[in-house]
């Protein structure tokens, strides 16, 4: 179990208040251990509308936009100015809306190592305190978190928002008194980070407001940074800081127990000062984003490299060295970058020996020995499991393929040991 250093924690309640907690950890997520759901007493509380029987909602009016609801009470008529739109990247929001299935998961949709998006649609109903079969209100809203990691500086920004609020109430329940909260906390994975790992949080890490406050000002920004001590990568210290961001979503009414969803959104990110191997000397990335080296068999610049990798992944029986049951990683099993120049050179020499065993002396030709997995990966020809392939291909093609690989490393801040995949298109 990795050591986790706590940076901040929001106090999620007291003994005097019972919480209704919804936990939705995705399969395979192991960033931290969540507490078991708290039990509720006989008090009223908000619950997911999906758990309500359709008949439970019959006595409620149709949900209306919050501004329409507020304007019904002239004594609480709000400013008629339209709500401000969140100040974020419109292209990312548009793409995120199209990735609905991924965006609503706890880790959101990871567009790249530098852009992430979470969008969750909530539909909650308020149970009556004395009659659990009766609903007193309904709250609908969208919760957003857009993430931006910076290539070139140790900074990660999150633009969070609560949008499209709609409400319905029955009896004396008053939605003007309902509150929504987004509460952020962070932890540092000390066992995976380099020594003296530090994270600087924004001054404000939680926002708990009345619905009428969220409506005109739906968005807010959180900026996380990590201090560095200047370049130390030559001494082996890349000043990596691996952090986990955790958002808790809350809904409250003065008359009921609060709705609390711990870990409604989780983001894993890393700061580093790795030097030239990562292109820009320092930066930040979302570590759970899937990185792929993509090559096409129709690309004349790398078609021989692409065909070799395709055969290794899909038709390993056609590759050398040959043995029964051979399989080669990179498609379903990730490859991992190897930065050590000497080990890379040793793997290249070993692969060239394999080529010469099969095809003899090819010096003086335009051919070069192509190897897959690459010499710059931990899965190269000296790993010891023989799950690799060598083939003679045209030299220019081989060098171009190597350039594409190096560009992928740099463009994605792939550091020593970082995973990536390979995809060959027709």
Automatic annotation (TrEMBL):
InterPro entries listed in its UniProt record: DNase_NucA_NucB (IPR029476)
UniProt-annotated stretches for the region Disordered: 35-63
Annotated signal peptide: 1-31
Keyword line: Signal
Domain Deoxyribonuclease NucA/NucB residues, every copy: 351-422
Identification of the protein by name: Deoxyribonuclease NucA/NucB domain-containing protein
Species, as recorded: Streptomyces gobitricini
């Amino acid at each position: 179990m990795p050591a986790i250093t706590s940076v901040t924690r929001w106090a999620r309640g007291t003994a005097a208040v019972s919480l209704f907690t919804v936990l939705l950890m995705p399969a395979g997520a192991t960033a931290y251990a969540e507490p078991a759901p708290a039990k509720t007493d006989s008090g009223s509380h908000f619950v997911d509308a999906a758990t309500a029987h359709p008949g439970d909602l019959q006595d409620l009016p149709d949900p209306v936009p919050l501004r329409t609801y507020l304007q019904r009470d002239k004594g609480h008529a709000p400013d008629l100015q339209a709500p401000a739109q969140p100040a974020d990247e419109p292209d990312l929001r548009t793409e995120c809306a199209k990735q609905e299935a991924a965006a609503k998961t706890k880790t959101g949709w990871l567009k790249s190592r530098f852009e992430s998006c979470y969008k969750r649609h909530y539909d909650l109903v308020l149970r009556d305190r004395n009659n659990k079969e009766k609903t007193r209100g309904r709250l609908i809203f969208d919760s957003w978190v857009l993430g931006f990691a910076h290539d070139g500086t140790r900074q990660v920004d999150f633009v969070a928002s609560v949008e499209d609020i709609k409400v319905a109430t029955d009896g004396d329940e008053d939605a003007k008194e309902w509150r929504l909260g987004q509460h952020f906390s962070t932890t540092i994975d000390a066992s995976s980070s380099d020594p003296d790992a530090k994270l600087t949080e924004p001054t404000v890490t939680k926002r708990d407001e009345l619905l009428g406050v969220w409506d005109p000002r739906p968005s807010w920004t959180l900026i996380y940074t990590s201090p560095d001590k200047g370049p130390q990568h030559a001494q082996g210290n890349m000043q990596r800081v691996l952090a986990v961001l955790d958002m808790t979503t809350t809904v409250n009414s003065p008359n009921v127990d609060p709705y609390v969803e711990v870990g409604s959104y989780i983001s894993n990110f890393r700061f580093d000062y790795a030097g030239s191997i990562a292109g820009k000397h320092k930066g930040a990335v979302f570590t759970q984003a899937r990185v792929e080296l993509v090559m096409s068999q129709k690309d004349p610049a790398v078609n021989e490299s692409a065909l070799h990798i395709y055969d290794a992944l899909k038709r390993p029986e056609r590759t050398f060295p040959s043995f029964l049951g051979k399989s080669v990683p990179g498609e379903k099993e990730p490859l991992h970058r190897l930065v050590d120049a000497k080990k890379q050179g040793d793997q290249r020499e070993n692969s060239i020996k394999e080529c010469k065993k099969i095809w003899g002396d090819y010096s003086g030709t335009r051919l070069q020995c192509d190897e897959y997995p690459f010499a710059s990966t931990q899965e190269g020809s000296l790993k010891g499991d023989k799950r690799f392939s060598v083939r003679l291909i045209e030299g220019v093609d081989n060098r171009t393929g190597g350039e594409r690989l190096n560009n992928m490393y740099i463009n994605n801040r792939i550091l020593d040991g970082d995973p990536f995949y390979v995809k060959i298109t027709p």
